[in-house]
Amino acid sequence: MPDFAIGVDLGGTNLRVAVVEEQGTLLEKVTISTKLLRTPERLVSAMCENIEELAGRFRPSGRLHGIGVGIPGIIDLHTGVLRESPNLPGWHDYPIREEIERRLGARVILENDANVAAMGEFWLGAGRGFDSMFMFTLGTGIGGGIILDGAIWHGMTGMAGEPGHMTFDPDGPPCACGNNGCLEQFAGANGVLRMAREAINAGRAPELARTERENGGLTPKLVYQLSTQGDEVARGIYRTASKALGTAIAAMINALNLPSFVVGGGVAGAWEAFSPYIYEEVRRRSFVYRATAPPEGKLMPPGRTHITHALLGADSGLYGAARLPMLPEELEAHEAKSTVQTNSK
Ligand SMILES: [Zn+2]
Question: Does the predicted model carry a pTM greater than 0.90?
Answer without folding.
Answer: yes
